[in-house]
Here is the input.
Amino acid sequence: MSKLRIAVQKSGRLNEDSMRILKDIGISIDNGKDQLKASAKGFPVEVFYLRNGDIPQYLKDGVVDAAIIGENVLIEKGETIKVVEKLGFSTCRVCIAVPKGDKYKSIKDLEGKRIATSYPNTVQMYLDKNGVNANLHIINGSVEIAPNIGLADAICDIVSSGSTLFKNNLKEVETILKSEAVLAVSPKLNAERQKILDTIQFRIQSVLKGRDSKYVLLNAPNDKIQDIINVLPGMKSPSVLPLAREGWSSVHSVISKNEFWNVIDDLKAKGAEGILVCPIEKMVL
Here is the structure.
């Protein structure tokens, strides 16, 4: 049976998040990061551990069939690789930063300045869009130190928490793009491997829906049930079960974690009691 070849970043936070979601969808890997390639147990998948910047070309050439990769890398490489699923983890943003003491009003302040970056194509597109001419210095790694050693007037790099900028006495002034991990596919993916990818994508969607949702159970007097049901978004309809206590029922439903506290406040106001909230591992709809 043919195996789907899926690439992940060789090391770092994206690697950890990628391996976690593969495990969550039932794909167990024989070996860790020490080898270039590892096979899954009981599922037709081979995992390739590659440098993040090399993955777009491997996808384009059909060396791998799919990849979990940062959206920012695809944009930087300029490859028209199809993204089939946004994964919601390993979020970051590509930002321009300048020394804290600099007076910065707008992107026009970078006219004629030197910008150190590992993302020259992304930066150049942003500068062109805003009609700014600047000199780009391409640096791989430790970009934040460039202004401190007089190499550049500003930097552009990926930012997660902003702590690295703070430590290097820099402030974020422009956000070029926001990025997250995505599932991308090769244009040369064949029909047989597409079926395997469809199964993987379905499982990933089930895991992501579970991560974004909470299971809620509550008790309520029967005369308040309809008001409470009107508050709950649910999936199709909440489950209502009678309690041993006469005139009371238990209501079960699913709510989005993003709406969690607002919904809980509304439920309490409508007469709900004994509210219990549980995480959801997976949601298969």
In short: The first strand starts at residue 4 and ends at 9.
